[in-house]
Amino acid sequence: MGRKTKKNTKGNAAQNQPPASSSKQEAAAAPPPELPKAAKKDVAELVTQLLEKCSKPPESGAKEWEDYPDIHGLVEKIRKIQSVLAPPESSRADQFPAFISWLNSNGVDTSAVQIAEFPEVGHGLKATRDLKEAEKLLQIPRKLMFTVDSAKQTALGPLIAEDKILQVMPNVILALHLLNEKLNPQSFWKPYIDILPTQYSTPLYWGPDDLQLLKGSPVQGDAISQYRNIARQYAYFYRLLQKNPAASKLLLKDNFTFENYRWAVSSVMTRQNQIPARDGSRATLGLIPLWDMCNHTNGIYTSDYNAEADACECYCLKDFAPDQQILIFYGPRSNGEFLVHNGFVYADNEHDQLRLKLGISKGDSLFALKSELLGKLSLPPSRSFFLHRGRFPVDGDLLAFLRVFSMDEDTLKSNYSGETAPGPEELEALKDENQQVNSDNEDKVWSFLQTRASLLLRAYPCSLEDDESVLQQADSSDVAKMASQLRIGERRILQNTVDYAEKKKDDLKSSS
Ligand SMILES: C[S@@+](CC[C@H](N)C(=O)[O-])C[C@H]1O[C@@H](n2cnc3c(N)ncnc32)[C@H](O)[C@@H]1O
User: Fold this and answer.
1) pTM for the predicted model, two decimal places
2) ipTM above 0.90, yes or no
3) Which residues contact 432 (CB under 8 A, 6 or more apart)?
4) Domains along the chain?
5) Is residue 197 lining ligand 1, measured as CB closer than 6 Å?
6) 296-352 per-position pLDDT tens digit
7) How far is the centre of ligand 1, averaged over its atoms, from the C-alpha of 121 (Å)?
8) How many helices (H) and strands (E) does the chain have?
């Protein structure tokens, strides 16, 4: 979410004592329930199959979708066996008072905010009084933060020190840390973990029918890849926890269910933040209690790191009246990114963009010349680009790629290769809309883009009106609404691109 930079202002550094190591606390905890031996054996076999299935390199297009039912099927079998370990349902809202007391007793002033439930966004913060734009809203000391660094100081530390894969996956470290602390009734962070949502709307919670709702959108492939990645991670870390002696005393070891893992991964994905390490030399990944109760809106970053106070500070994005929801800006992400990583999309996303995969065909007789020129622009011959919402749908990288993609042999040979190889200025010019290679090339660029965007518009399985009515219908599922809102945004970007290309072609005609 918010970007954190170092900032020196006055603060109360004396409060910042690290929490006691929870490895000691774990020793006092009652053991959580375990699966019977036979069930454990069945899970271990399914996990081996899952790891094998997910470890095959992901294939694009239809193949990716073809693999998904098998992966999903194995995961569902595992979940069924492990369902006996599910903890009793608990009410999140009942835990808020203890959470606020915990914050207050650790030096957090919560007087300006209150936790409340809001339509469409879940729980969030509301103002308890008039708050002015740029006024300091919250200050959360490091000792309350739940970070990769704090994970290393618990019983997870030895496992992190041993496993090379874990060391390069800070988000997984956080997820395992969260699960281990959740199982520990003595955890310092218990009041925080108790108020986390019990489930999420990320695609990790979707079934095959839900994923089908994304048909026509490139986000469908992203959601399937995410599911595959998390299933693979689950299988890998399941085996690691069973086999590695450094994991033998972890509470997590016998409670590492897929349900728990997708919950922990989603908790981390939807709430994580980069936090400068204590010495400022690097960033660590972490969760920031209370600050992470703020929901997102368009705007600018208003969070900062106060190095002197060793605390995260959040300022008001705008004026807020009493009882009004306090919103912050998470960052410039597209609706597709928000859907896959945060489980939501919203209508007025100023930073919405649509992924567009493009490549020079290996069968193109000019492949070598075009690839060489693209290399000089630091672009591979095939990659994903983005079409943007707003006045300028095409950015410099996409424009340069399309110009090279559309170049004829003569132009390539006489202006862009060998002795006529372009210098830095000519390369920059390829990214500049106000310059052109020649009018024929320019016409090809905009015609190609117009056709491609029109085809993508036609590829959606339903109309704009259908999607708009899904949003209006009270009985539409949350996933159906999300998929419709996503497509509405994508269609707007594609239609804007078609119109923009048309205008560019008209301008070309009138200038020739
Ligand atoms: C950091 S948490 C914010 C607190 C969260 N609403 C809760 O109940 O714990 C981020 C999550 O809040 C929800 N959210 C935040 N901003 C939203 C928005 N503009 N529209 C819909 N959901 C939103 C999404 O579920 C997202 O994953």
Assistant:
1) 0.91
2) yes
3) 396, 399
4) 6-328 (3.90.1410.10), 353-511 (3.90.1420.10)
5) yes
6) 999 999 999 999 999 999 999 999 999 999 999 999 999 999 999 999 999 999 999
7) 5
8) 20, 13
